[in-house]
Design a protein that fits this description.
The chain is α+β, with helices and mostly antiparallel strands. It folds into 2 domains: about 45 residues, no CATH class; about 70 residues, Alpha-Beta Plaits (2-Layer Sandwich), CATH 3.30.70. It is built from 3 helices and 6 strands, in the order βββαβαβαβ. The strands form 2 sheets. A 3-stranded antiparallel beta sheet has the order 1-2-3, with no helix packed on it. A 3-stranded antiparallel beta sheet has the order 5-4-6, covered by helices on one side. The longest helix has 11 residues. The radius of gyration is 15 Å and the shape is globular. Zinc ion (ZN) binds next to loops.
């Protein structure tokens, strides 16, 4: 699997995902991103990247991945999510991956799920 990096968090060991779809379904063990490896472009991280930093931060309990399914045309939802999570920016996409330095509280997750335009929230265990 070397040379193939996660499209969610940018790191991870992509592991075979027998339940997934595609010719060679794979899954990121860090953030839960899934893909068909047969369809993935191969790339190598730049020399100045520290490829395992996120893994170490996650292992240390200082990095949490949160997937949010939302309506990208709903600006209000995007700003509300940024406010709830204290983010300064958020990419507009039907599914976004947010990296957090602390585990969001159940209350925060509940509020997120209740934001109009948010279709799903999933904290990676
Ligand atoms: Zn990942």
């Amino acid at each position: 699997m070397s040379g193939v990096y996660c499209g969610g968090c940018g790191e991870g060991d992509l592991l075979p995902d027998p339940g997934g779809t595609g010719r060679r379904p794979v899954r990121c063990d860090l953030c839960g991103w899934t893909a068909d490896e047969a369809e993935l472009p191969r790339k190598w991280p730049a020399d100045d990247e520290a490829p395992w930093t996120k893994r170490e931060r996650k292992a240390a309990g200082r990095l949490f991945f949160l997937w949010i399914d939302l309506d990208p045309d709903d600006d209000a939802a995007v700003f509300e999510i940024m406010g709830l999570l204290g983010l300064e920016n958020l990419s507009l996409a039907p599914r976004v991956l947010v990296e957090l330095g602390a585990r969001p509280s159940a209350e925060t997750l509940r509020k997120l799920s209740g934001v109009r335009g948010v279709r799903g929230v999933r904290l990676v265990p």
